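hi!! sorry for the late reply, been swamped w classes. u asked for the two structures so here they r. pasted raw, havent cleaned anything up. first the sequence of the first protein and right below it the tokens
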Amino acid sequence: MYVKTTTRQSKTGPVRYLHLAHNEWDAGRGRSVPRILYSFGREDGLDTDAVRRLVASLGRLLDPADALAATAEAGSGLVFTGSRPYGGAYVLDQIWRRLGIEKILTGLASSGRGRSRDAATAERVLFALVANRALAPASKLAAAEWMSQDVHIDGLGEVSDDACYRAMDWLHAVRGEFEKQVYFQVADLLNLQVDLLFFDTTSTYFETEDPDADVPRDWRGEPATDEQSADPDKEGSGSTASPRTAGTTCPRSSSGSPSPARRSRCGSGAGQGTPPTRR
């Protein structure tokens, strides 16, 4: 694929036209012939902005290194080293700062209680964990890799999973005061009059010292219905219900019916010493 130039004569002289072309083999002619894919129009009226948009659109189909090599000037010495997304983390960081969370954490670090060795790094790590939960939820180990390799966060370099756990331990030590300050900061910032608070009870549970009551279950192990509980003769009812008891196999004589010697035993269900089963 290349840019093909054609020249046409006009009353004012020769006019050059630019085209995006591609050579295709013509079996009838026995040679390749150009095929025009797109015409840019007259060279002296070229829409350079349209060309830039086209180049940018085509560049998105390449990896960043190839895109840079295709657009960089020859001999510029530019070398692609890496690329990380920045927009999502930047927006969240601005909200984080607007809510005053950065200042609250820094103030708690300087107060002495549960003080971290590096408050600035701990604050950045905590923000990165929040950003990871919003942009690419993952485990703490995967989050540390995400912070170090997959995203750019201002003020934060390479992060280990140990740094994440240390930051969370420090936050846990100051959790009560931190939650109170964030609440008042947000209420003041948004001019809120709070009448109702919601709490996340996902991990909340309670226990009692009293044992659980026996629950009647059917033969599948599921809680029995009221009808099954009221009728103990119904199959599988009651808390002691068990799966069906296999019947006794009665040997047959050559005529296809139980032999007289065994008819009474098979009729009583005692052919194998098994008591009769109530069905």
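now the second protein. again sequence first, tokens right under
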Amino acid sequence: MILALFLYLLKSGVFYLFNGFFDINLWLVGTFIVVGFLLWLGLYYFYRKYRYQSKFWGKVYKLSLLANVIFSQGIYERISKKNGKKDIEKFKYFPRMYMKFNSLNSFSVYLPLDGNKFQKRFIDGSFDSELVIATRATVSDTNTIDGFIVYEHLLFPLNFRVSLDNAKVSSHKIEIMQGMVWDFEKHPHMLLSGDTGAGKSFFLFSVISSLLKAGVDLKIADPKRTDLASLSRTKPLKGRVFYTNDRILSEFEKFNQEMLDRADEYQQILKDKDGMGNYREYGLKAHFFVFDEFVAFINMLDYRGQDNVQKILASITMLGRQLGFFVITAMQRPDADAIGSAARDQFQMRVALGKMKASGLNMMFPDENPDNCASLDKNLKGWGYALMSPGKPRDFFAPEIPKGFKAKAYFNELGEMLEKRELAKSK
């Protein structure tokens, strides 16, 4: 409609021009200008709104942002030459950078490691941090290839969220977001923090569901008797959820002792083997202890009790990987003193959900500048940052839990499904 009107006015305007300038209808000219302006405004609006969804304009827009960052950060060298009385500056050197577009929602930036004076900024991530802010992307991976450091980026990480039932699971890997798979043998032990309303419990539900599907032996502690405690009455977790202080402490000690017993079992196995293999190679199952509200539990104990729990945690985190014993420690606010110095650096998978203060981010991601972890909408549940050591924190969205989710009903159905699967295997 607008295009037809525009063409009509254009035809009329040309007609009037060829039939005498002074015969032009000023109202027609004004209408022509207004319609042209509205058409330009509409095209600009659609460009701004859909520039990320357009392959061509999306590439142009990202390249323009990269160019802006290069110039604003001074990533170039200039020389001055005199031309008579004037000094003329010319560009002498630009680092050889590349941007590769993998899809509409992901791209890679190649920064040269050729001894240039900007190399330190490329390696420590300070240059890429500016690009992340400009493009509103998140760094998903970093590696070096043929003289370049490569930063992989994702746009709109919310689009990479997986649903609770569609998360892929294997014997030692669980998918927690598209493009992010937690291999708990490679990155053992998870440290999880998230304040009230951040989605911590729902994330734990999804992780527990995936672990059950993976066939691990699972125990759960919930000293506050909140969300996870309700799973004690479900089919797959009956007798495996503990919420009294004495029982939690007893089961945690038992879990550690089972790990030490497996170490003795290994010694017997290795008498006839050359070298120490993975626990799965000998037909052994992975064991998990999910410890919710860990800080709250520690604060309920006296000094001797705290020391005992911290020693057990250190034992599991330092010895458990090879033996197939893993722990997930969850808390509302990260507390380094509660975890203990021996276990603090052993958590290779870290997830911080929701808005968090700089002190909390420093504890969760000690090698990262908290300013690089921007906060999103506080009403958006399940978002945060995740790190698989030794990588960098990246934007993270926990698996999506369907509306009207009923934990007990879901896990009872899951238990029945797992029973049928075991029966099918045994036949």
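hope this helps!! also noticed smth abt the second:
The chain has two domains: 56-155, 164-426.
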